[in-house]
DNA sequence: AAGACGGGGCC
DNA sequence: GGCCCAGTCTT
């Protein structure tokens, strides 16, 4: 892919960011490496509006990397509960321990070293290096791919790794030379993609007075292809999945077990998917639908009020007081289900 | 190179 | 219903 020269792209983006970019997001003030790192992990595949509150809550619970490293992974998953992509939480915990044990609690500033840490890939490593240490490195997230692809008119299929690879090379070329500009530039790419060059209704397609500063240079705009860029051909294969939940209640406690370490909702607490106590007096409750990006779940809950508590249970199984269950690391549909039911009343 | 991995928001 | 979001890791 050949990239033409877009005049003054980098310097104009920097000026734009300083005048019209975002400057008051929680992780933009007091940019310590710990705060920057946490925000970058939370923001992976997750929108800013979702992260803001969860970020503040997480920082309150784990104010620094030593506290995080010294906590149990279960406590971290509990705080992460409902945010999805739970590998992020497990890697976050692992990464904190590595940084404390091998780096004396201080993140390295070299993007290549950062990239070796659990949960930190190329783009996140660059973001941490830029925002925490002012190191020169290029990011390439969803926003940046869209901005670069449109302005340079890249109509290639971005679900192909070759196309993304060429965008990476281009992103490196565009970096400003002055280190004092790195933060504004990097933040500018994100801000411009998130607020102007958006997926739906980018400013160039709106009827209001706002104008895109690149409208006369953007190849997608000049050729009327803004709606077709970026292009992704690959379709998500959505599986329809049916799942049973066996909800055992005994004296104000609910039986939960920890899910396997691999697969969906790994290491989170949930209801058994089989009738492990072999009871035949279950009440079938209304089924629950839960939509994930690549799976549509239809869940069939069966409720059983036990008259005695089974003696033998395994590790990673537990009778949890109903009032405490919501404090565990739970998948979204499990916490939603628990909140919607009055199980304590049934058991009275 | 392709799939797995959550949940929310927008069309 | 499909697609995307401050992506990374595994196969």
TrEMBL record:
What cofactors does this protein use?
[4Fe-4S] cluster
Q: Which reaction does it catalyse?
A: Hydrolyzes free adenine bases from 7,8-dihydro-8-oxoguanine:adenine mismatched double-stranded DNA, leaving an apurinic site
Q: Which residue ranges traverse the bilayer?
A: none
Q: Which CDD domains does UniProt cross-reference here?
A: ENDO3c, NUDIX_DNA_Glycosylase_C-MutY
Q: Name the enzyme group at the top EC level.
A: hydrolase
Keyword Metal-binding assigned to the entry: answer is yes
According to its UniProt entry, what is the function of this protein? Adenine glycosylase active on G-A mispairs. MutY also corrects error-prone DNA synthesis past GO lesions which are due to the oxidatively damaged form of guanine: 7,8-dihydro-8-oxoguanine (8-oxo-dGTP).
Q: What is this protein called?
A: Adenine DNA glycosylase
Q: Which organism is it from?
A: Polynucleobacter victoriensis
């Amino acid at each position: 892919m050949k990239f033409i020269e877009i005049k003054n792209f980098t310097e104009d983006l920097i000026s734009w960011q300083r005048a019209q970019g975002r400057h008051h997001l929680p992780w933009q003030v007091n940019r310590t490496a710990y705060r920057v790192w946490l925000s970058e992990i939370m923001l992976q595949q997750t929108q800013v509006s979702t992260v803001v509150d969860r970020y503040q809550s997480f920082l309150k619970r784990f104010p620094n990397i030593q506290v995080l490293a010294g906590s149990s992974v279960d406590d971290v998953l509990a705080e992460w509960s409902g945010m999805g992509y739970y590998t992020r939480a497990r890697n976050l915990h692992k990464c904190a321990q590595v940084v404390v044990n091998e780096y004396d609690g201080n993140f390295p500033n070299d993007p290549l070293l950062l990239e070796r840490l659990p949960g930190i890939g190329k783009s996140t490593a660059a973001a941490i290096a830029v925002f925490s240490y002012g190191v020169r490195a290029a990011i390439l997230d969803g926003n940046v791919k869209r901005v670069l692809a449109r302005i340079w008119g890249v109509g290639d299929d971005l679900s192909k790794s070759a196309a993304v690879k060429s965008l990476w090379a281009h992103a490196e070329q565009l970096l400003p030379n002055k280190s004092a500009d790195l933060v504004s530039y990097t933040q500018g790419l994100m801000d411009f993609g998130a607020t102007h060059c958006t997926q739906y209704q980018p400013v160039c397609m709106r009827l209001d007075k706002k104008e895109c500063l690149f409208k006369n240079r953007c190849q997608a705009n000049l050729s009327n292809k803004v709606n077709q860029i970026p292009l992704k051909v690959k379709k998500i294969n959505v599986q329809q999945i049916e799942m049973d939940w066996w909800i055992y209640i005994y004296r104000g406690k609910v039986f939960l077990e920890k899910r396997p370490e691999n697969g969906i909702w790994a290491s989170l607490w949930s209801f058994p998917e089989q009738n492990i106590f072999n009871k035949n007096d279950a009440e079938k409750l209304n089924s629950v639908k839960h939509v994930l990006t690549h799976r549509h779940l239809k869940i069939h809950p069966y409720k059983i009020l036990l008259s005695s508590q089974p003696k033998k249970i395994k590790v990673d199984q537990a009778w949890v007081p109903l009032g405490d269950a919501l404090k565990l690391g739970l998948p979204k549909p499990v916490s939603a289900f628990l909140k919607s039911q009055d199980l304590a009343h049934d058991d009275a």
